[in-house]
């Protein structure tokens, strides 16, 4: 159970990792839509990582880009989300990556929780090890 307590700038909760401040003002905490987007992007990225490992695909990094469309006429709700996964790998075929993406959609609890409310579109891009530097 998480308990949220009101404070001067919003609400705060304590989770296993640490305190989380929720606020409508970005300088005082995470905005609710940022947490929604982060939970979906983070969950799907973690699911993809696990699936690639199970498929024995060698990769050095996964980057997730989330673009969202909000409706200002309906409480500024998130209506659409476009997730692009960039996988830095050399031995992954496009077919294997597409299969991994399909499994990611099915195995991400956050996507499954909102799939009837938010249209989520995913794509996956393969990049070679030399394309990015750490």
TrEMBL record:
<dbReference type="InterPro" id="IPR003718">
    <property type="entry name" value="OsmC/Ohr_fam"/>
</dbReference>
<dbReference type="Pfam" id="PF02566">
    <property type="entry name" value="OsmC"/>
</dbReference>
<dbReference type="InterPro" id="IPR015946">
    <property type="entry name" value="KH_dom-like_a/b"/>
</dbReference>
<dbReference type="InterPro" id="IPR036102">
    <property type="entry name" value="OsmC/Ohrsf"/>
</dbReference>
<protein>
    <submittedName>
        <fullName>Osmotically inducible protein C</fullName>
    </submittedName>
</protein>
